Amino acid sequence: NFYRILDFAFGRIAYKPLQDYCLGAICADPSSVFESDYFYCMDVNMLTSLLKRDDLGIDEVELWNNVIKWGFVQNPTLFEDPAKWTPEFTATFQQSLADCIPLIRFTLMTPAQFREKVWPFKDILPADLYDSVLWHFLMPEAQVNPFTPRLKTIDSKLITLKQAAMIASWIDQKDDKFYTYTEIPYDFTLLMRGSEDGYSTNTLHQRCGGQEKTFLLLKIKTTQEIFGMYISGIWNVTASARAHDSFMFSFSEGKETTKPVLSRVRSSGYDLALSRGMDRGMGELEMFKVSPKFGVSSTSLPLTL
């Protein structure tokens, strides 16, 4: 199978083209490996080859989580709570990930993601790397970002690249076969984020009102579910949708592993609507502008998330 071919080709100079092809296939669909049992058996050299790639289509915080899981599989006797580690345990885990940690692009995470997912493991990070990342978060304008972005990113706290590819697929009526991250035909530009810009419906409508093809994403505070609404027509004061290609969807607790729910408009009329007062009970809101990638012939799509 695919993994046996990769194992065979990896490290053999004569099979370098085959190795590159396999790594490229993984980068285009990372979940095929990172969500499989094969990932935990992966050789560290193969793992670092993936981490070095600019076209690895996975959110950096998710990549870090997977690397940490890989490390635990290599050290099955360690407690999963690093607060309970002895200095010897810390040194063992640090040694296991010594080649991987410098390849994680920590500044591509949000400060909140870094605090929640990386900070508990801060003792395994090189001191200069940890300080560099902290200074970047504290003074982003004054600090040179030590990491370059990967090929395709989305500045979202709510959805992953894989979920963004699903949304792009639904826009283009691809309900059964989703785009991979490299195939997404749109660029996403953040226009509004509730935790930074406030949750005023006036602000939302000022930024989005009158524009065609908009997207709204909401995170429910109590359930952590992500709800989205695509308006293919013009966004007005009530954000109503008449067009047949409008739709709603949800991700359970924002997880990729749970099958999303998609509901399309089946008949004419105001089938989708968003009224004022929506900020009650909201955990987060994001709004994006979506534009076709260079070389793709399509109408510009302002997206609200």
From TrEMBL:
It holds the Pfam family TLD. Residues 157-305 form the TLDc domain. InterPro entries: TLDc_dom. It comes from the Eukaryota. This is 8395_t:CDS:1.
